[in-house]
Amino acid sequence: MAKYHQKKEISKAIEYAVGRGWTYEEHKRGHACGSLKCPGVCLVFVSSTPRNAGNHAKDIRRKIDNCPCGT
Questions:
Q1: How is residue 31 annotated by DSSP?
Q2: pLDDT tens digits, residue range 42-64?
Q3: Is 40 in a helix, a strand, or coil?
Q4: C-alpha 41: how far from its chain's center?
Q5: Rounded distance between C-alpha atoms, residue 27 and residue 19, angstroms
Q6: What is the tens place of the pLDDT at every residue in 23-47?
Q7: What domains can be seen in the chain, in order of their start residue?
């Protein structure tokens, strides 16, 4: 299992996205620890310190599932 984030819920959400064809790019600076990009034009930022890791993971999954590009 790849380790993308220190919170397991968020790491699993990133793995969910990568498994559906999205790419994960790690950021070195700022509040976002990385971003997810679909093969189209969609972009989802992954927070390094979310208030609630479970809710942030659900938001990531929801954005992946509702991608208008159809991925």
A1: S
A2: 999 999 999 999 999 999 999 99
A3: coil
A4: 15
A5: 20
A6: 999 998 888 999 999 999 999 999 9
A7: 8-65 (3.30.920)
DSSP class of residue 37 equals E
In the beta sheet, which residues pair with residue 25? 35
Rounded CA separation 53/45 (Å) = 14
- Is 48:31 a contact under the CB 8 Å cutoff? yes
Of residues 39, 43, 48, the one with CA closest to residue 20: 39
Tell me the pTM. Answer: 0.90
The identity of residue 13, as a single letter, is A
Rounded Cα distance between 24 and 22, Å, is 7
User: What is residue 4's DSSP assignment?
Assistant: -
CB 29 within 8 A of CB 46: no
